[in-house]
């Protein structure tokens, strides 16, 4: 059984590799994303799902082979030929035994499948939260992700950092999923199945990634115009890196006198209606928290790399990056924008 | 084989002015004409919905494409889904029901001819209202636009706050109108089947197509109405300040999902059950054997109808229902696969031991069998809930349901076209063009929908107007799009066949396929009164009994 | 071309199928039941979930008298039908008209109740979840009562002009079926709103 699974897994990986290699040719030079694959689980829920999928694929594969064979056989064996075309074949109306047989066998298959399904279902969905689990509250917005770490006092956006979970001493991350507006869905294929974020209906999911690295996903429930660019980027950190990241995120914003002019621009324009910067008077909740904006690889929920050019463009003309997003074009003068950029670049 | 008609000398048939012909068609209450109107209406929307699909596929051909804006793309997938389901498949299926059911049961017309006409025009109005949204969607203060909330219009996306203007109202009102039209036709079908059968045609002697339409009609009554109810609630929210789905006032977005899918899942069985009916008529004739296991086929259909009303939340496995609810819907979803599988086995059993003729209707049915098998199996895969947590809302499920609707229902419907076109028009469709149509469509279909499963497995969600180049989805999407273009060409071949055969097709005669049900005893096309004298039957295959008086079915049933 | 009929000899029994009007009305009732079920489910689901505003316990008064009016109208319409079957047109018209009056009384009662709720307690369809679900459910039912009364009134007008006789019994019975359905729905709505919901 294990060899069968491994063979199927190798075949699937080869197929995926082939397709990825074929599409590399079309890929742009820069890419903030990498291929993902539900058959490369890196976490317990994804792995349980993978094993169950191998099981059901085997069963359905066998059913397909059997029925297809019957179909192809009947088409070739019982075709009309010039010899027999002028007479009618025996007019058979049915057979109770055959009907019973092909009712009972499917019933048994269903029973087996259902038992396997419900076991994995309960194991994932009803898993108790251990005391040492990291808790993160995820709030879905049109079209970005808000992350709050209640135990650690951290608030950030769009790029989630969680610690790696050593199978010997597991430290899973439990996500509470909420929504500020419409429905969204949190999907990182290699870490877990997706779970929706529904307003007025808190949900819960968990994952325990086995290896550190960057994991990619995106919103999977149509949430409006820019559903397509509500991307997910999860950084699974080693315990030390994670602790370092938490320390950085908990600091208030740097107060650098050299960029006071830029900070003035930020505080005097509409920026503060939507954005928060810890340690200043800006505490808007509609848009992402910008206290540590420069600690992120991407902006606009993964729609663009976090470079000065992109950030400038995002502020002046967000539609160029993410048309239909709820970030307004700020219409700043060049000098204001330059000052503001200087300020934003200090938000590490 | 003499036909049940009254001869009219040729001299008495005059040429009519075109305006009178048009007036007759618009005011008709005849089931055959209404059937044709429904089908032509559906075919027009097949083209419109198909163009919307092509726009989607061109946009998704490669990453970061900008063929259309995100706003236009979102309208395209919303309109594509809404159009194809409500204004293509439903009308075409109701059209076949209208045309065939009275003929197959030996009746003069449907039970309520005027209700029939009213229902058709109500449905037709609904479609026109939906497309008017392109002009009127935003009201007076802006250019109009079509609905862009997906064909499910999930709350709260459909609420005033997230869907300003009137685009969502066009979605709601057009479907309310056509929904009431569907209910009218369903009532008509049920009353016709239960009350208008010719003498001797007990329920156990009806053609399977009639049985299947009876079950479909019953399902329409209890499935369409929840959508109507939910849409009335949405209108109350949008216009009277109601809070049914207003999450800020304690309302529930999940309640909309339940109501929608209580409609939505039985709806897809409503769509597939007539396709099963087409298969159950065509396969026996081209295998030269009666359907294998008629009583089991009836029982399986009723079972499917009943069980399918209990599976709806398998569309909601990721919404956060508790594990017991998820398990319940898993078992019911797997259970509904059992009678469905039994039907597939019975069709193979019909072909087994037969003398199979590979005419075009049969080719399409064989395509159905192969493809519906695969579609059913990918359905079972998704019924294993945790696996569905990966596969749902991705291109895997988009591939699955197109496999059912295109690979299954549309193939069966093409078969029905080739099979009954001679009866309706008196001419045969071209076998040669039919084979081109079949093979082009088969190749295009598989190129698109086989490959489409893979991006889903690689993490591609649905309803996205573009995607990042590094995900590895580019080449796959390109292949999918090319397959779509091939299918479009096949549809053009089909359309050409329909038109050219009307004028140049071989004359069909009453019974070109040597079939066994009552519609083949009339002329092609049938006279307006269908049967000069009311038939009386003693078995399920009255024409077999007449053609084989030494070995009639009536002595075995 | 000869005109031979498809006819297999040997059909002995008389061939009787149900009356299509009744089958159609039964089908319509099934469809309408599904619509009402959804509204009832919404009502039940939202019991106790309003975030603000008047609660059912605070503002609802059980409409006993008007319920009796509506339910007894089922009796009057039933006997009206029986009289028509026996050709007794006068009795039919009296009982039929009484049905219309009782239905009208019920609607009047609903109107009174709504006026009280709106003006004395400030409960409207947009106040809270209770308001939304209450007015929708009771309103949907009242709408069906109104349509029923209109149809009954049309028949009454024809009966008054002497045009309705025993030969129309079957059709009249189809309308009665609808009226009984409307009453049955009220039994459910009454239980859900005034008994369970408080």
Form type of chain C: elongated
Mean pLDDT across residues of chain B? 95
Q: How much helical structure, as a percent, in the residues of chain B? A: 55-70%
Stated plainly, the CATH topology of chain B is called Cytochrome C Oxidase, Chain A
Q: How many domains, in number, for the residues of chain B?
A: 1
Percent range for β-strand residues of chain B:
under 5%
* Biggest interface, chains and residue tallies: A-B, 105 and 102 residues
CATH architecture of chain C: Up-down Bundle
How would you name the CATH homologous superfamily of chain C?
A: Cytochrome c oxidase, subunit III, four-helix bundle
Helical residue percent band of chain C: over 70%
CATH topology of chain C: Four Helix Bundle (Hemerythrin (Met), subunit A)
CATH homologous superfamily of chain B - what is it?
Answer: Cytochrome c oxidase-like, subunit I domain
Which CATH architecture of chain B is right?
Answer: Up-down Bundle
Structural class assignment of chain B? mainly alpha
Rg value of chain B: 24 Å
Please indicate the count of domains of chain C. Answer: 1
Overall pLDDT of chain C: 94
**Model regions low in confidence, pLDDT < 50 over at least 5 residues of chain B:** none
SS summary, helix count of chain C: 6
Distance between the termini of chain B: 24 Å
**Proportion of strand residues of chain C:** under 5%
Fill in the keyword field for this structure:
heterotrimer, A: 348 residues, alpha+beta, Immunoglobulin-like, five-stranded mixed beta sheet, three-stranded mixed beta sheet, 12 strands, 38% helix, 17% strand, B: 557 residues, Cytochrome C Oxidase, Chain A, 16 helices, globular
Characterization of the model:
- Chain A is 38% helix and 17% strand.
- With 348 residues, chain A is α+β, with helices and mostly antiparallel strands.
- Chain A has helices spanning 2-24, 44-77, 96-125, 239-250, 260-268, 271-274, 308-316, 334-344; strands at residues 134-141, 144-149, 154-157, 159-163, 173-179, 184-186, 195-197, 203-207, 213-218, 231-237, 298-299, 304-305.
- In chain A, the strands form four sheets. Chain A has a five-stranded mixed β-sheet with strand order 3-2-1-5-8. In chain A, strands 4-10-9 form a three-stranded mixed β-sheet. A two-stranded antiparallel sheet of chain A has the order 6-7.
- Chain A has three domains: 1-27; 32-75 and 95-211 and 220-228, Immunoglobulin-like, CATH 2.60.40.420; 257-344, Cupredoxins -  blue copper proteins (Immunoglobulin-like, Sandwich), CATH 2.60.40.420.
- Chain A starts with a helix and ends with a helix.
- By secondary structure, chain B is mostly helical.
- Chain B has a single domain (34-555), classed as Cytochrome C Oxidase, Chain A.
- Chain B has helices spanning 18-27, 31-59, 70-104, 113-136, 167-195, 208-240, 253-287, 294-307, 323-351, 360-383, 385-391, 395-425, 431-451, 453-457, 474-504, 542-547.
- The mean pLDDT of chain B is 95.
- Chain C has a single domain (21-48, 63-196), classed as Four Helix Bundle (Hemerythrin (Met), subunit A) (Up-down Bundle), CATH 1.20.120.80.
- Chain C has helices at residues 20-45, 56-59, 64-85, 89-121, 129-160, 169-196.
- The longest helix of chain C has 33 residues, at 89-121.
- Chains in contact: A-B, B-C.
- Chains B and C meet through helix 5, helix 6, helix 7 and helix 16 of B and helix 1 and helix 5 of C.
């Amino acid at each position: 059984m294990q060899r069968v699974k491994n063979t199927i897994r190798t075949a699937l990986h080869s197929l995926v590799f082939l397709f990825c290699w074929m599409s590399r040719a079309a890929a742009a030079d820069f890419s903030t994303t990498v291929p993902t694959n539900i058959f490369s689980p890196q976490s317990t829920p994804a792995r349980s799902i993978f094993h169950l999928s191998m099981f059901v694929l085997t069963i359905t594969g066998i059913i397909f082979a059997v029925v297809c064979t019957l179909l192809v056989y009947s088409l070739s064996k019982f075709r009309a030929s010039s010899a027999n075309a002028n007479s009618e074949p025996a007019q058979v109306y049915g057979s109770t035994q055959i009907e019973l047989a092909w009712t009972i066998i499917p019933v048994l298959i269903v029973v087996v499948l259902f038992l396997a399904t419900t076991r994995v279902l309960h194991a994932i969905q009803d898993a108790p939260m251990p005391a040492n689990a990291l808790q993160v509250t995820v709030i879905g917005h049109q079209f970005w992700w808000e992350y709050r770490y209640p135990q650690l006092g951290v608030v950030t956006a769009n790029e989630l950092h969680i610690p790696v979970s050593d199978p010997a001493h597991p430290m899973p991350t439990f996500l509470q999923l909420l929504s500020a507006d419409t429905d969204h869905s949190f999907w990182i294929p290699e870490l877990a199945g997706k779970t929706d974020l529904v307003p007025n209906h808190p949900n819960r999911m968990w994952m325990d990634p086995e290896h550190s690295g960057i994991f990619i996903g995106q919103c999977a429930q149509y949430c409006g115009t820019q559903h397509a660019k509500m991307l997910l980027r999860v950084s699974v950190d080693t315990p030390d890196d994670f602790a370092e990241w938490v320390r950085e995120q908990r600091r208030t914003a740097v107060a650098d006198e050299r960029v006071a002019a830029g900070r003035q621009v930020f505080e005097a324009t509409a920026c503060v209606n939507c954005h928060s910067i810890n340690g200043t008077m800006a505490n808007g909740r509609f848009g992402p928290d910008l206290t540590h904006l420069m600690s992120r690889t991407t902006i606009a929920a993964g729609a663009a790399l976090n470079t000065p050019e992109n950030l400038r463009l995002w502020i002046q003309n967000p539609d160029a990056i993410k048309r239909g997003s709820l970030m307004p074009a700020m219409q700043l003068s060049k000098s204001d924008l330059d000052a503001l950029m200087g300020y934003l670049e200090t938000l590490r | 084989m003499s036909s049940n008609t009254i001869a009219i000398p040729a001299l008495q048939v005059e040429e009519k002015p075109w305006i009178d012909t048009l007036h007759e068609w618009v005011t008709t209450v005849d089931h055959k004409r209404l059937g044709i109107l429904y089908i032509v209406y559906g075919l027009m929307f097949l083209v419109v919905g198909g163009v919307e699909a092509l726009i989607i596929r061109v946009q998704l051909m490669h990453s970061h494409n900008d063929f259309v804006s995100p706003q236009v793309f979102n309208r395209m997938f919303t309109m594509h889904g809404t159009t194809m389901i409500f204004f293509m498949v439903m009308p075409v299926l109701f059209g076949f029901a209208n045309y065939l059911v009275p003929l197959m049961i030996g009746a003069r017309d449907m039970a309520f001819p005027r209700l029939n006409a009213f229902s058709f025009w109500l449905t037709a109005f609904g479609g026109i209202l939906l497309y008017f949204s392109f002009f009127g969607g935003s009201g007076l203060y802006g250019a109009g636009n079509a609905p862009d909330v997906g064909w499910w219009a999930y709350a709260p996306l459909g609420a005033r706050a997230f869907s300003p203007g009137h685009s969502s109202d066009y979605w709601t009102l057009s479907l309310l109108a056509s929904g009431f039209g569907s209910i009218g036709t369903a009532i008509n079908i049920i009353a016709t089947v239960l009350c208008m059968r010719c003498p001797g045609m007990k329920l156990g002697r009806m053609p399977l197509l009639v049985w299947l339409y009876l079950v479909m009609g019953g399902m329409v009554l209890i499935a369409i109405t929840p959508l109507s109810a939910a849409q009335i609630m949405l209108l109350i929210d949008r216009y009277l300040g109601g809070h049914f789905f207003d999450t800020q006032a304690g309302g529930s977005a999940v309640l909309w999902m339940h109501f929608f899918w209580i409609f939505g899942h039985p709806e897809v069985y409503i769509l597939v059950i007539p396709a099963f009916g087409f298969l159950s008529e065509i396969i026996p004739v081209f295998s030269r054997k009666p359907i294998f296991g008629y009583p089991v086929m009836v029982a399986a259909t009723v079972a499917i109808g009943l069980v399918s009303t209990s599976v709806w939340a398998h569309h909601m496995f990721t919404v956060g229902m508790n594990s017991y609810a998820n398990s319940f819907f898993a078992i019911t979803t797997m259970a509904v696969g059992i009678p469905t599988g039994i039907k597939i086995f019975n069709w193979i059993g019909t072909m087994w031991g037969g003398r199979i003729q590979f005419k075009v209707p049969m080719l399409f049915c064989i395509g159905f069998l192969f493809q519906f098998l695969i579609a059913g199996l990918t359905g079972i895969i998704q019924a294993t809930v945790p696996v569905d947590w990966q596969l749902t809302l991705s291109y895997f499920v988009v591939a699955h349901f197109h496999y059912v609707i295109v690979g299954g229902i549309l193939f069966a419907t093409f078969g029905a076209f080739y099979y009954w076109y001679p009866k309706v028009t008196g001419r045969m469709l071209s076998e040669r063009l039919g084979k081109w149509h079949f093979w082009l469509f088969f190749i295009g279909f598989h190129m698109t929908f086989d490959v489409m499963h893979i991006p889903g497995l690689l993490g591609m969600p649905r309803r996205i107007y573009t995607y990042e180049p590094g995900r590895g989805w580019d080449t796959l999407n390109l292949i999918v799009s090319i397959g779509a273009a091939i299918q479009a060409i096949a549809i053009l071949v089909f359309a050409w066949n329909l038109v050219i055969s009307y004028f140049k097709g071989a004359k069909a005669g009453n019974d070109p396929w040597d079939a066994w049900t009552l519609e083949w005893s009339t002329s092609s096309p049938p006279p307006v009164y269908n049967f000069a004298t009311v038939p009386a039957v003693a078995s399920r295959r009255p024409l077999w009994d007449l053609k084989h008086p030494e070995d009639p079915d009536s002595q075995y049933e | 071309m000869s005109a031979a009929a498809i006819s297999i000899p040997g059909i002995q029994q008389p061939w009787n199928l149900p009356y299509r009007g009744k089958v159609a009305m039964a089908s319509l009732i099934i469809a309408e039941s599904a619509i009402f079920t959804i509204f009832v489910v919404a009502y039940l689901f939202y019991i106790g979930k309003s975030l603000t505003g008047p609660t059912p316990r605070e503002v609802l008064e059980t409409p006993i008298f008007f319920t009796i009016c509506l339910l007894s109208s089922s009796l009057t319409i039933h006997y009206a039908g029986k009289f028509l079957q026996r050709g007794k047109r006068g009795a039919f018209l009296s009982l039929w008209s009484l049905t219309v009056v009782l239905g009208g009384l019920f609607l009047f009662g609903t109107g009174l109740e709504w006026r009280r709720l709106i003006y004395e307690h400030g409960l409207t369809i947009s106040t809270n979840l209770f308001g939304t679900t209450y007015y929708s459910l009771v309103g949907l039912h009242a709408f069906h009562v109104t349509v029923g009364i209109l149809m009954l009134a049309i028949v009454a007008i024809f009966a008054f002009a002497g045009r309705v006789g025993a030969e129309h019994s079957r059709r009249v019975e189809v309308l009665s079926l609808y009226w009984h359905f409307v009453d049955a729905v009220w039994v459910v709505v009454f239980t859900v709103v005034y008994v369970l919901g408080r």
